[in-house]
Design a protein that fits this description.
15% strand, 59% helix, two-stranded antiparallel ribbon, 19 helices, elongated
């Protein structure tokens, strides 16, 4: 029986068999490592799937309504065969997990056999992998290694899931924001007293813009701040709002505020002296479809002092965009209604534009400016893109995502501390073997690389497993999350958690986690490399 602290047994030399054999052995070793990693990932995902199926089964039993109520049709969305289906899915998941266990154990035995027969890697990599999967390692070291791998995996899994869900929510918010403010806006040059286009110029600009490559549609817009009252009288409460005058026949092609999906009540096509109110604005005014409200227009001097134009408007509809600030402060009316209220006959405030690829907005904006310059000569226009209209909103989304990334990355950092502890225990346990290796000619750099590889292998396994777990959970959230809980669509305007998996982001997260794990192995590796072989051989 060999001593538990004996140096790892070297495999039979393959150098006498020629470089071709050595190359094949290296390639076979790499292929075996990748196969073993794939089997480990298969086992990890199968185990996670079993846990998910158990949770789904338990939640299904907890949420099950009275069968009599189901029979009476009070729960039309409830599947009476759900328990049977959940049990069947759990049984299948358990069978797959058991098969994954046997496959992984078989792959592990095959890898150990290959390590003991041929040299299929560099000396440092061979010794490091031998330490990692050797049966002679202490049970405490093996346990801490497993904990280190699981710590890294959980951290990476949390990063992948949270960032993917946040990407999904950001995508919905951005889409809704662009549905209100369009993709590009064209404003008149800041010269003169009035910052509006004459109606003739506005029509010409729309014609030029719609002929630009990448533009879907364009529509005129006239926005004014106003006050609404539910009734006349000085004592009546006044509610400030932004009244936007639009051409609804064109507006439906540019924004989605007046679309059928956004209209809660009434119509999305108001007539002259009718208004479309946001949900929260209508609640503040305590009005409904068909009620009259009064709007304060342009203030003009009179013999009795300044006086504002007041018009009565009929509430034609109520909309909801899902953006609270818009639903609380925005109202829409026809262009003629706003022009009449603010004495801006034949004036247009801006042109807002929808393009086919919002991510290429800067390119399309440059084309628009170039075409307008050719048409109007030296006359310039001011343009804004969707990300410049509300910069604070998009900056807040970015800061929120970065903050969440940093917070969740702390989990990986904590897990990397376990890697440091694991490697220190391995170095302490292998002190005598390190002395033997150095006495046989191994340099300090080789010893350093052995333990760096050890930490790197733990990081690779933990990171890949965490990434696989995260992607599997994202798949479950995207397809079957309603089996556990349902989002109230009346509150969030969505009926499921949105998930967007971006390969570039996932690769960046995995790279950060792997780098942290690699850095965690530096201190123990340097400790092992600086050992004196004489003192190491005396260690018992």
């Amino acid at each position: 029986m060999s001593h538990p602290n004996a140096a790892p047994t070297a495999p039979r030399s393959s150098s006498r068999r020629g470089p071709a054999y050595e190359l094949l052995a290296r390639l076979g070793g790499i292929a075996m490592d990748l196969l073993l990693l794939a089997l480990f990932l298969f086992l990890g995902v199968a185990t996670l799937d079993v846990l998910i199926k158990i949770i789904v089964l338990v939640v299904g039993y907890a949420q099950a309504p009275d069968p009599r109520l189901v029979a009476d049709g009070l729960f039309p969305n409830w599947d009476p065969k759900r328990h049977v289906n959940d049990l069947r899915d759990l049984g299948l998941a358990v069978a797959i997990a058991v098969a994954a266990v046997f496959a992984f154990l078989g792959g592990l035995r095959a890898r150990r056999y290959l390590l003991s027969r041929v040299i299929d890697a560099s000396f440092e990599s061979f010794v490091s992998k031998r330490y990692l999967i050797s049966r002679s390692s202490g049970s405490l070291v093996n346990l801490i290694t497993v904990v280190s791998v699981l710590g890294v995996s959980v951290g990476v899994m949390a990063l992948v899931v949270v960032i993917s869900v946040m990407n999904g929510f950001d995508s919905i918010l951005v889409k809704r924001m662009m549905g209100v403010f369009a993709h590009v806006e064209v404003w008149p040059p800041f010269a003169g007293e009035d910052f509006e286009f004459p109606a003739e110029d506005a029509e010409r600009i729309i014609e030029i813009v719609e002929g630009t490559d990448g533009v879907v549609a364009a529509a005129p817009l006239l926005s004014r701040q106003t006050f609404f009252q539910a009734d006349t009288g000085i004592g009546e409460e006044k509610v400030g709002a932004l009244l936007r005058g639009v051409d609804f026949s064109r507006e439906h092609k540019v924004t989605e505020v007046a679309a059928a999906d956004s209209i809660l009540a009434g119509t999305g096509n108001p007539e002259f002296r009718e208004v479309l109110l946001g949900k929260e604005l209508a609640r503040k005014l305590r009005v409904d479809v068909g009620d009259k409200i009064y709007a304060l227009g342009k203030v003009r001097p009179t013999a009795l002092g300044p006086k504002g134009a007041i018009r009565s408007l009929r509430v034609a509809g109520v909309f909801q965009t899902g953006i609270y600030n818009v639903d609380e402060n925005f109202a829409y009316a026809t262009m003629a209604t706003v022009q009449d209220l603010f004495l801006a006959e034949d004036q247009v405030g801006s042109i807002h534009i929808r393009i086919d690829e919002p991510e290429k907005v800067q390119v399309v904006r440059a084309r628009i400016r170039e075409n307008l310059f050719e048409a109007f000569g030296t006359q310039s226009v001011f343009t804004r893109t969707w990300d410049e209209i509300n910069p604070e909103f998009f900056e807040a989304l970015w800061i929120e995502k970065v903050a969440m990334f940093i917070i969740l990355l702390l989990i990986v950092i904590v897990a990397s501390l376990n890697i440091i502890g694991t490697l220190i225990l391995v170095v302490t346990q292998k002190t005598r073997e390190i002395g033997i290796l150095k006495s046989m000619g191994a340099t300090s750099a080789m010893i350093l690389r052995i333990f760096l590889y050890h930490g790197f292998f733990i990081g690779v396994v933990g990171t890949t497993l965490g990434t696989a777990w995260g992607l599997w959970i994202c798949r479950f959230v995207d397809r079957d999350i309603e089996k556990i809980f349902q989002i109230p669509s009346a509150v969030y305007l969505i009926d499921r958690l949105p998930v967007i998996v971006e390969p570039g982001v996932i690769g960046f997260l995995a790279g950060c986690a792997l780098l942290i794990c690699l850095l965690a192995g530096i201190i123990p590796a340097f400790k092992a490399a600086r050992m004196d072989p004489v003192e190491a051989l005396r260690y018992d």
